[in-house]
Design a protein that fits this description.
Blueprint (H helix, E strand, L loop, with lengths): L1 H22 L10 H13 L10 H6 L8 E5 L7 H4 L7 E5 L7 H13 L4 E7 L3 H7 L7 H15 L6 H18 L2 H8 L4 E7 L6 E3 L2 H5 L1
Parallel strand pairs: 1-2, 1-3, 3-4
Antiparallel strand pairs: 4-5
The chain binds zinc ion.
Zinc ion (ZN) binds next to helix 6.
Length: 223
């Protein structure tokens, strides 16, 4: 009888262990490297598997007094490129600076610096997108009403103008994102943070049809 009891007790312990292992919460997503987290969130969005996390009333209250967004997104104002949606992120995770053509002037730079210096952000992602109206207007020299923005895009236009390719708009959009990345990397405060390995800067390109975000490097942008 005692043996039978011990056998049941052992089985009970075994099931308890299996159950507790299965019900353990997954490690917090915040421990992931910043770039990996952004790209994984984008993959969930592309695959139609968005988790829509950190959008509860608990989350809202949790971050009411303090937020530490892990990423700064420098994106275009275009209504089809909403960072929280395309990276499947929630409240308090992204510090977003949006302006037509994802350009960086003094005001944008000060906003970016604020999050990088005081909110402990780990990454800055400059996000261009295909079919960008601001870059297209600058490319066509149609600068009416966007004079200041076009002026900031102009170096990218000059860079790709000599390319006799069909996709000159795409090249200009990528060159523009890269220019803004380079601008950040050479701005004193961000430069120091990069040197101290506290932040990284990337440029990326968003595809309006697929929803996919791909990183831009110097090589692919000049192909
Ligand atoms: Zn745009």
């Amino acid at each position: 009888m005692k043996k039978l009891f011990l056998s049941f007790y052992f089985i009970f312990l075994l099931f308890s262990f299996i159950f507790s292992s299965c019900s353990q919460k997954k490690p917090a997503i915040t421990s992931q490297p910043a770039l990996e987290r952004l790209l994984e969130g984008n993959k969930r969005y592309v695959d139609n598997k968005s988790q829509h996390s950190d959008r509860s009333d608990e989350r809202r209250k949790e971050i009411a007094s303090k937020h530490t967004p892990y990423a700064v997104i420098v994106g275009c104002s275009d209504s089809r490129v909403s960072p929280e949606i395309i990276f499947d992120e929630g409240l308090g995770n992204l510090f977003v600076v949006r302006v037509a053509g994802n350009v960086i002037g003094q005001i944008e730079l000060e906003s970016i610096n604020y999050s990088a210096l005081y909110l402990n952000s780990k990454i800055i992602l400059v996000l261009g997108h295909d079919n960008c109206g601001a870059v297209e207007a600058a490319l066509q020299n149609n600068k009416i009403n966007i004079e200041k923005i076009a002026k900031l895009i102009e170096p990218a236009i000059q860079k790709v103008k000599k390319n006799k390719t069909n996709n000159v708009l795409e090249q200009a959009i990528k060159a523009n994102a890269l220019n803004m990345k380079n601008l950040l990397e050479n701005s004193p405060k961000i430069k120091q943070l990069i040197k101290d390995k506290k932040i990284e800067v990337h440029a990326a390109y968003y595809n309006l049809k697929t929803g996919r975000v791909e990183l831009i490097n110097e090589k692919t942008s000049s192909d």
